[in-house]
Amino acid sequence: GAGGAGAGAGVGGRRGLLKAAGRAMGLLAPVFAAENRLQAAVMGVDDDARAKARAQIDTTCAGFPVVVYTYGLSPFSSEAVALLEAAGAAPAMTRVVEVGAEWFLLGKEGSALRAELLALTGQSSLPSVFIGGRHHGGLFTGTAGAGPGLAARRGSSELAPLLQRAGALAE
Q1: pLDDT (tens digit, 9 = 90+) per residue, 25-78?
Q2: Of 54, 122, 144, 149, which alpha carbon lies 20 to 30 A from 23's?
Q3: Is 131 helix (H, G, I), strand (E, B) or coil?
Q4: Sheet containing 134-135, strands listed edge to edge, beginning at the edge strand earlier in sequence
Q5: For 78-91, b where at least 16 C-beta lie within 10 A, e where not — what string?
Q6: How many CA atoms lie within 13 A of 152 on its CB side?
């Protein structure tokens, strides 16, 4: 079902718990965006660091059909990767970029990457998923331009065709 069906890694009620938490995170988006900007300033992220981060995002998204920016300790991030795999995304076609272990553990480079993801997508939370070079939100959240997030796309049967058009399906 829409966001409720397991993706392979979701066990029991884990997906439901993450969905509820994801809704709460969506409500906090303005707070996270402000925190993102403050963190970048505190970490000394300057125009040069942001330009390097943007170049990294552009190069990575051009080189892989599926790119997922994650936090290593985030259950949302690991569930998004599992959902993509369950939908048929080939591991060789997917690049998972760990921005850091968690938002409060980022150094200058991770903060610059996170700030550029916010500037590029309007989303400061992770995971941040790109398919075919286009941003598609996170696990349960998205932006006006990105749509509803991966779980809703999977639930509505939109995810597999997106992966197919991007050339990301396992053969």
Answers
A1: 667 778 888 899 999 999 999 999 999 999 999 999 999 999 999 999 999 999
A2: 54
A3: strand
A4: 94-100, 66-71, 128-131, 134-135
A5: bbbbbbbbbbebbe
A6: 14
Q: What span, in angstroms and rounded, lies between the C-alpha atoms of 26 and 93?
A: 28
DSSP category for residue 73: T
For the entire predicted model, the pTM comes to 0.85
What's the rounded mean pLDDT across residues 145-152?
Answer: 85
Amino acid at 31: V
Split at pLDDT 50, 70, 90, the class of 4 is: very low
Q: Of the candidates 75, 69, 68, 71, which has an alpha carbon nearest to the alpha carbon of residue 7?
A: 75
Place of tokens 């050339």: 167
Cα(45)–Cα(150) distance, integer angstroms: 30
